[in-house]
Structure prediction request, 251 residues.
Amino acid sequence: MDLGLKDRVYVVTGATRGLGNAAARELVADGAKVVVTGRDEASVAEAASALGPNAVGVAADNADPEAAGRLIATARERFGRFDGVLISVGGPPPGFVADNTDEQWQAAFESVFLGAVRLARTAAAELADGGVIGFVLSGSVHEPIPGLTISNGLRPGLAGFAKSLADELGPRGIRVVGLLPGRVDTDRVRQLDGLSADPEATRTAAESRIPLRRYGAPEEFGRVSAFLLSPAASYVTGVMIPVDGGVRHGF
Prediction:
């Protein structure tokens, strides 16, 4: 199936590793061009190099108010156009209500929430009919995840913002979508699930709670992301799509 991604240009944040990187890889594999970002300059350069000539890396922190404009300007300067953005950011620090400090909440709000809002708002002003804004969120949008109190507090609010934005931008032909990854096999999930302590036993227990009985592969998440950002999904907007092996039941 041709997704219609050839020569389209996307900004993908948090793309040096994990889910953002998986999405960037699939976009490039289907013919798109990408601006990939991360906070560490060396990691960004390495990720862009691995993606090849249709990628450029820009070191940027989502919490930086100037980052959004700089990333979109880079897309236009390097590739001549801007078709959409996938906003992915590393998860907030784990912890329970009594553990997380005001400083951790503030830092997470600036990066996870306000940084995403700024980038989406800037993108909305720059996109034309057919543009798309995607958010990488979490299953905590629907149900709190034990030990991830900050994420539980911020992700649902960001999903609400995304749905409001979809209503506002729909008349201009701009789509807004959210992805809700479950147990996808990334460094963060392995850390959260304690796989480093007793990998086999812990993984078996975690997978037993997933209807497909396995962790997702990053490229599986990447393929869903590429589809949702592509013209092939031109009538999909305002939705939160679980990519979780069937954990999320219901409508």
Remarks:
- The mean pLDDT is 91.
- Residues 18 and 187 are 7 Å apart (CA to CA).
- The longest strand covers residues 175-181.
- The two ends are 27 Å apart (CA to CA).
